[in-house]
Amino acid sequence: MTRHLFAISALALALAACGQSPAPAEAPADVSTMPAPAPAEPAPAAPVAATPAPASASKPAVVADCATTIESNDAMQYNVDAIAVPASCSQFTINLKHVGKLAVNLMGHNVVVSKQSDMAAVASDGAGAAPEFVKAGDTRIVAHTKMIGGGESASVTFDVAKIKDGGPFMFFCSFPGHMSLMKGSIQVQ
Ligand code: CU
Fold it and tell me: Is the pTM of this model over 0.90?
Protein backbone atom coordinates (compact mmCIF):
# COMPACT_ATOMS: atom_id res chain seq x y z
CA MET A 1 0.00 0.00 0.00
CA THR A 2 2.67 2.53 0.93
CA ARG A 3 4.81 1.48 -1.98
CA HIS A 4 1.92 1.86 -4.26
CA LEU A 5 1.20 5.37 -3.05
CA PHE A 6 4.81 6.31 -3.43
CA ALA A 7 4.84 5.03 -6.97
CA ILE A 8 1.77 7.05 -7.84
CA SER A 9 3.12 10.25 -6.35
CA ALA A 10 6.43 9.74 -8.11
CA LEU A 11 4.58 9.37 -11.38
CA ALA A 12 2.61 12.48 -10.64
CA LEU A 13 5.78 14.41 -10.01
CA ALA A 14 7.27 13.16 -13.21
CA LEU A 15 4.16 14.17 -15.19
CA ALA A 16 4.15 17.57 -13.52
CA ALA A 17 7.77 18.12 -14.44
CA CYS A 18 7.08 17.03 -17.99
CA GLY A 19 4.04 19.24 -18.30
CA GLN A 20 5.93 22.30 -17.18
CA SER A 21 8.79 22.10 -19.58
CA PRO A 22 7.05 22.69 -22.96
CA ALA A 23 5.21 25.80 -21.73
CA PRO A 24 8.07 28.35 -21.71
CA ALA A 25 9.38 27.05 -25.05
CA GLU A 26 6.26 28.13 -27.03
CA ALA A 27 6.26 31.86 -26.39
CA PRO A 28 9.54 32.99 -27.97
CA ALA A 29 8.94 30.92 -31.13
CA ASP A 30 5.81 32.92 -32.15
CA VAL A 31 7.22 36.35 -31.43
CA SER A 32 10.28 35.88 -33.62
CA THR A 33 8.27 35.09 -36.78
CA MET A 34 5.85 38.07 -36.63
CA PRO A 35 7.40 41.48 -37.38
CA ALA A 36 9.10 40.58 -40.68
CA PRO A 37 6.84 41.43 -43.73
CA ALA A 38 5.71 44.98 -42.89
CA PRO A 39 7.93 47.53 -44.76
CA ALA A 40 7.76 46.30 -48.39
CA GLU A 41 4.53 47.73 -49.94
CA PRO A 42 4.63 51.37 -51.22
CA ALA A 43 6.64 50.48 -54.33
CA PRO A 44 3.87 48.93 -56.61
CA ALA A 45 1.31 51.68 -55.87
CA ALA A 46 2.84 54.35 -58.12
CA PRO A 47 2.44 52.72 -61.59
CA VAL A 48 -1.24 51.87 -60.86
CA ALA A 49 -2.15 55.50 -60.12
CA ALA A 50 -0.48 56.70 -63.32
CA THR A 51 -2.63 54.67 -65.74
CA PRO A 52 -6.20 56.17 -65.72
CA ALA A 53 -5.41 59.38 -67.57
CA PRO A 54 -8.04 59.76 -70.39
CA ALA A 55 -11.20 60.52 -68.36
CA SER A 56 -12.36 63.83 -69.85
CA ALA A 57 -15.27 62.85 -72.13
CA SER A 58 -15.66 59.12 -71.65
CA LYS A 59 -19.40 58.81 -71.03
CA PRO A 60 -21.44 60.86 -73.53
CA ALA A 61 -25.19 61.18 -72.99
CA VAL A 62 -27.59 59.66 -75.51
CA VAL A 63 -29.42 62.54 -77.19
CA ALA A 64 -32.60 62.13 -79.26
CA ASP A 65 -35.36 64.58 -80.22
CA CYS A 66 -33.62 67.49 -78.50
CA ALA A 67 -33.64 65.69 -75.17
CA THR A 68 -31.57 63.38 -73.03
CA THR A 69 -32.19 61.28 -69.95
CA ILE A 70 -29.37 60.99 -67.48
CA GLU A 71 -29.20 58.98 -64.28
CA SER A 72 -27.88 59.70 -60.80
CA ASN A 73 -27.33 57.19 -58.02
CA ASP A 74 -26.66 56.66 -54.32
CA ALA A 75 -22.90 56.71 -54.98
CA MET A 76 -23.02 60.43 -55.84
CA GLN A 77 -22.58 59.90 -59.58
CA TYR A 78 -24.21 60.74 -62.89
CA ASN A 79 -24.00 58.04 -65.54
CA VAL A 80 -22.70 60.55 -68.14
CA ASP A 81 -20.07 63.26 -68.20
CA ALA A 82 -20.84 65.02 -71.48
CA ILE A 83 -24.01 66.25 -73.22
CA ALA A 84 -23.84 67.31 -76.87
CA VAL A 85 -26.82 69.49 -77.77
CA PRO A 86 -27.64 69.45 -81.50
CA ALA A 87 -27.38 72.94 -83.04
CA SER A 88 -30.65 72.25 -84.86
CA CYS A 89 -32.59 72.27 -81.56
CA SER A 90 -34.12 75.54 -80.40
CA GLN A 91 -34.96 74.03 -77.01
CA PHE A 92 -33.37 71.16 -75.14
CA THR A 93 -34.69 68.98 -72.31
CA ILE A 94 -32.66 67.23 -69.64
CA ASN A 95 -34.51 64.47 -67.80
CA LEU A 96 -32.89 63.39 -64.55
CA LYS A 97 -33.66 59.99 -63.07
CA HIS A 98 -32.42 59.16 -59.56
CA VAL A 99 -31.95 55.40 -59.66
CA GLY A 100 -30.83 55.18 -56.02
CA LYS A 101 -32.88 54.69 -52.88
CA LEU A 102 -31.62 57.33 -50.47
CA ALA A 103 -33.86 60.23 -49.46
CA VAL A 104 -33.49 63.70 -50.91
CA ASN A 105 -32.04 65.14 -47.70
CA LEU A 106 -29.28 62.52 -47.66
CA MET A 107 -28.44 61.98 -51.33
CA GLY A 108 -30.43 64.58 -53.24
CA HIS A 109 -29.48 65.32 -56.83
CA ASN A 110 -30.39 67.96 -59.37
CA VAL A 111 -28.98 69.22 -62.65
CA VAL A 112 -27.80 72.82 -62.82
CA VAL A 113 -26.44 74.33 -66.04
CA SER A 114 -24.07 77.27 -65.93
CA LYS A 115 -20.85 78.56 -67.41
CA GLN A 116 -17.89 76.56 -66.23
CA SER A 117 -16.43 79.74 -64.79
CA ASP A 118 -19.59 80.27 -62.66
CA MET A 119 -19.93 76.71 -61.34
CA ALA A 120 -18.05 77.11 -58.08
CA ALA A 121 -19.83 80.35 -57.12
CA VAL A 122 -23.25 79.00 -58.09
CA ALA A 123 -22.68 75.91 -55.96
CA SER A 124 -21.33 77.76 -52.94
CA ASP A 125 -24.14 80.33 -53.02
CA GLY A 126 -26.63 77.48 -53.40
CA ALA A 127 -25.18 75.57 -50.44
CA GLY A 128 -27.03 77.89 -48.06
CA ALA A 129 -30.35 77.54 -49.85
CA ALA A 130 -31.72 74.20 -48.65
CA PRO A 131 -33.57 72.12 -49.72
CA GLU A 132 -33.12 73.01 -53.41
CA PHE A 133 -29.56 74.30 -52.97
CA VAL A 134 -30.11 76.89 -55.69
CA LYS A 135 -29.94 80.55 -54.78
CA ALA A 136 -33.16 82.34 -55.70
CA GLY A 137 -32.78 84.66 -58.68
CA ASP A 138 -29.26 83.49 -59.53
CA THR A 139 -28.88 84.81 -63.09
CA ARG A 140 -25.74 82.75 -63.64
CA ILE A 141 -27.93 79.66 -63.74
CA VAL A 142 -29.03 78.83 -67.28
CA ALA A 143 -31.41 76.10 -66.14
CA HIS A 144 -31.93 73.68 -63.29
CA THR A 145 -34.17 70.83 -62.26
CA LYS A 146 -35.64 70.49 -58.79
CA MET A 147 -33.76 68.46 -56.19
CA ILE A 148 -34.89 64.82 -56.09
CA GLY A 149 -34.31 61.72 -53.98
CA GLY A 150 -34.03 58.04 -54.84
CA GLY A 151 -36.71 56.73 -57.21
CA GLU A 152 -37.75 60.21 -58.35
CA SER A 153 -37.40 62.02 -61.67
CA ALA A 154 -37.27 65.65 -62.74
CA SER A 155 -36.74 67.54 -65.95
CA VAL A 156 -35.91 70.98 -67.25
CA THR A 157 -36.23 72.55 -70.69
CA PHE A 158 -34.27 75.61 -71.78
CA ASP A 159 -33.48 77.68 -74.87
CA VAL A 160 -30.41 76.34 -76.64
CA ALA A 161 -29.46 79.92 -77.56
CA LYS A 162 -28.48 80.42 -73.92
CA ILE A 163 -25.54 78.03 -74.19
CA LYS A 164 -24.43 78.89 -77.75
CA ASP A 165 -21.95 81.59 -76.75
CA GLY A 166 -19.84 82.44 -73.74
CA GLY A 167 -19.00 78.88 -72.74
CA PRO A 168 -17.74 76.39 -71.98
CA PHE A 169 -20.89 75.36 -70.13
CA MET A 170 -21.24 72.63 -67.56
CA PHE A 171 -23.99 70.68 -65.86
CA PHE A 172 -23.60 69.69 -62.22
CA CYS A 173 -25.38 68.79 -58.98
CA SER A 174 -25.60 71.62 -56.45
CA PHE A 175 -26.25 69.42 -53.41
CA PRO A 176 -23.43 70.44 -51.02
CA GLY A 177 -20.30 68.42 -51.72
CA HIS A 178 -21.58 66.69 -54.84
CA MET A 179 -20.16 68.90 -57.58
CA SER A 180 -16.66 67.45 -57.38
CA LEU A 181 -17.97 64.10 -58.61
CA MET A 182 -21.24 65.09 -60.30
CA LYS A 183 -20.40 67.30 -63.25
CA GLY A 184 -19.98 67.19 -66.99
CA SER A 185 -19.73 69.34 -70.07
CA ILE A 186 -22.73 70.51 -72.09
CA GLN A 187 -22.11 72.09 -75.45
CA VAL A 188 -23.89 72.85 -78.69
CA GLN A 189 -22.62 70.86 -81.63
CU1 CU B 1 -26.17 65.25 -56.00
Answer: no
